[in-house]
Amino acid sequence: MGVRDEQKQATRERVLEAARDLFNDVGYEETTIRAIAERAAVSVGSVFTTFASKAEVLSHVMERRLDDLYLEFDRVLPYLRGATADRLCSIFAIHYEFETRRVKLFLAHIAASYSPSLDPGVKPYGRNQRLTDMLCDVLAEGVKRGEVRADLDRQLAIDVLKAVYAWNYRMAASAGGKGDAAAMSAAMERQILAIAEGWRPR
């Protein structure tokens, strides 16, 4: 990597860190590219040289946070026990515990994902393939264990689970961005148990 590439990478890192903090502190809508540039100590032009838009910055901020989350999952997943619903509850509880550390940032991600002006190059909420694969594996294991119907539309079930997961952030939003991971996990557990009634073998 040449000096120019190193400088570009350093600028990118500063922009992402500054944006992450601003999105979490003041919110997505209130954060401007100029504010990100000032916090990162770079020019506005440097931000636009690296990213096409504020939405793209947010998308990259969220992507890089997933590395830490999935290190946790790699450690925990081999030890998950219990019925299919219990395993799903554990997965989402880990997500809530992680995301409520910077709950305003995750609320910004959800809000931007539902914006009609979302940039085509931005990965919105719900498109996380690793989470999708993880949930699919749990449901497939549930089929093998006789706890889940073999004819279940797994992708539809996963879409419903993700939608419910996002819905529970309304509690954090109504509390002014203060996320209670335990309360959201408890709500998700009740919802998963209700959903599980629909996938039981008949």
Quick take:
The protein is mainly alpha-helical and 202 residues long. It has helices spanning 3-26, 33-40, 44-50, 54-76, 84-99, 103-113, 129-144, 154-167, 169-174, 181-199.
Characterization of this structure:
The protein is an all-alpha fold and 202 residues long. The protein has helices at residues 3-26, 33-40, 44-50, 54-76, 84-99, 103-113, 129-144, 154-167, 169-174, 181-199. Helix 1 crosses helix 4 (54-76).
Structural descriptors:
about 200 residues; mainly alpha; Arc Repressor Mutant, subunit A; Tetracycline Repressor, domain 2; elongated
Assign the structural class, choosing from mainly alpha, mainly beta, alpha/beta, alpha+beta, or little secondary structure: mainly alpha
Uncertain residue segments: none
Chain oligomer state: single chain
Number of spatially distinct domains: 2
Largest sheet: none
Distance between the termini: 60 Å
CATH-defined topology of the largest domain: Tetracycline Repressor, domain 2
> Given the structure, what is the number of helices?
10
The average pLDDT score comes to: 87
Count of extended strands: 0
Strand content: under 5%
Helix content: over 70%
- The helix/strand series, from N terminus to C terminus, equals HHHHHHHHHH
Radius of gyration: 19 Å
